[in-house]
Specification:
The chain is an alpha+beta fold. It folds into 2 domains: 91 residues, Ribosomal Protein S4 Delta 41, Chain A, domain 1, CATH 1.10.1050; 88 residues, Structural Genomics Hypothetical 15.5 Kd Protein In mrcA-pckA Intergenic Region, Chain A. The chain has 10 helices and 5 strands. A 5-stranded antiparallel sheet has the order 2-1-3-5-4, covered by helices on one side.
């Protein structure tokens, strides 16, 4: 399945909630949810739309998680299968997989305004993990890893903008940010209290358990 390349505000309107896909714009009155609360499409047909079935609710929750983290279906299914084989609660293990992605860590640290921008920043080779360049957004960090900018990238306009705003957004407890050095250390694996995305993982587990 190809990655979605359409207007991301349409995804938020479809879900009926903010997915924070456009960075700072999502916190302003320009946000699509603030201006147009109705779902995209034919509104006359939507008025006749039936309530979602149980399967429909589960599918919508799974799609919401994919859209928030920018993950393809095959990747997402693989994360779920790995989570289901791991010790502990499957839903929490799934969220740990999503949070440990390098593009998400770059976003959580404040090195990018959105996960989409973080994915591009990693893909363009601006980021290092333990002093080694990593250009794979799905790279999984682990406790003890240090994520930083490449020295060659510190002269870019992107880095100048990022460094001027580092520390203004609160990082989760499992990441330790050093704004002066523009580095972030993974001090632990994310716990439930560190994840602020409104995803009902029980619905996702039930969706895949029936397939």
């Amino acid at each position: 399945m190809a990655r979605y390349t359409g207007p991301v505000c349409r995804l938020c309107r479809s879900q009926g909630m903010k997915l924070f896909l456009k960075g700072e714009r999502c916190y302003t009155p320009r946000c699509a949810i603030e201006r147009r609360k109705s779902p995209p499409g034919d509104h006359s047909a939507q008025q006749r739309r039936r309530r979602l079935s149980e399967h429909g609710v589960q599918l919508k929750e799974k799609q919401k998680a994919r859209e928030i983290y920018g993950v393809l279906e095959r990747q997402f299914r693989r994360y779920f299968e790995e989570a289901s084989r791991s010790k502990g609660v499957t839903g929490m293990q799934l969220m740990q997989h999503l949070e440990r992605r390098l593009d998400n860590v770059v976003y959580r640290a404040g090195f990018a305004d959105s996960r989409a921008q973080a994915r591009q920043t990693v893909s363009h080779g601006h980021i290092r993990v333990n002093n080694r360049k990593v250009n794979v957004p799905s790279f999984m960090v682990k406790a003890g890893d240090t994520v930083s900018w490449r020295d060659q990238s510190k002269g870019t306009e992107l880095f100048k903008f990022v460094s001027a705003n580092l520390g203004k957004r609160q990082s989760p407890g499992w990441l330790k940010l050093d704004p002066g050095a523009a580095t972030v250390e993974v001090v632990a694996l994310p716990e439930a209290g560190d994840i602020d995305t409104s995803i009902d993982t029980r619905q996702i587990v039930e969706f895949y358990s029936k397939r």
